[in-house]
């Protein structure tokens, strides 16, 4: 019986030691020109995502494959809702920062926060 408990304990400890996905968490876009605007993305460990401060762009899911991040959701506007899926190149990711690039657009930089500001959904 002691061996069974020891094996169970080791399995639980091993699960806790597995590295966490660095993208999981709340990320706010760095916008030096518009500091009063707060927007970003919450990446959940189960592959779901939520928009932060963007009422017309509702993220629903994400997938990270090598350095390609695919975000999917719904774009809401002018009385219609359109499903979308965008793929970005992950140019940089660290525990504090994330830099994404979509071909033909400027790179977007994010900073990771542990909590969302109270006035942002």
Q: What can you tell me about this protein's structure?
A:
By secondary structure, this protein is mainly β. It has a single domain, classed as Lipocalin. Helices cover about 15% and strands about 45% of the residues. It is built from one helix and eight strands, in the order αββββββββ. An eight-stranded antiparallel beta sheet has the order 3-2-1-8-7-6-5-4, with no helix packed on it. A hairpin with a 2-residue loop joins β5 and β6. The model has no long low-confidence stretch (mean pLDDT about 85).
The largest β sheet comes out as: 8 strands, antiparallel
Beta strand %: over 45%
Helix content: 10-25%
What's the number of helices? 1
How are the secondary structure elements laid out?
Elements (H helix, E strand, L loop, with lengths): L1 H16 L7 E5 L10 E4 L5 E4 L4 E9 L2 E10 L2 E14 L3 E5 L6 E6 L8
Antiparallel strand pairs: 1-2, 1-8, 2-3, 4-5, 5-6, 6-7, 7-8
Which short descriptors sum up this protein?
1 helix; mainly beta; eight-stranded antiparallel sheet; Lipocalin; 13% helix; 121 residues
Summarize the structure.
The protein has 121 residues and is mainly beta. The protein has one helix at 2-17; strands at residues 25-29, 40-43, 49-52, 57-65, 68-77, 80-93, 97-101, 108-113. It is built from one helix and eight strands; from the N terminus they run αββββββββ.
């Amino acid at each position: 019986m002691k061996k069974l408990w020891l094996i169970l304990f080791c399995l639980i400890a091993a699960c806790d030691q597995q590295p966490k996905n660095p993208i999981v968490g709340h990320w706010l876009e760095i916008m030096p020109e518009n500091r009063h605007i707060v927007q970003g993305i919450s990446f959940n460990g189960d592959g779901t995502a939520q928009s932060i401060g963007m009422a017309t762009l509702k993220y629903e899911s994400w997938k990270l494959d090598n350095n390609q991040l695919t975000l999917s959701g719904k774009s809401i506007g002018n009385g219609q809702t359109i499903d979308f899926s965008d793929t970005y190149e992950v140019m940089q990711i660290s525990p504090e920062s994330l830099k994404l690039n979509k071909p033909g657009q400027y790179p977007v930089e994010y900073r990771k926060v542990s909590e969302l500001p109270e006035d942002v959904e």
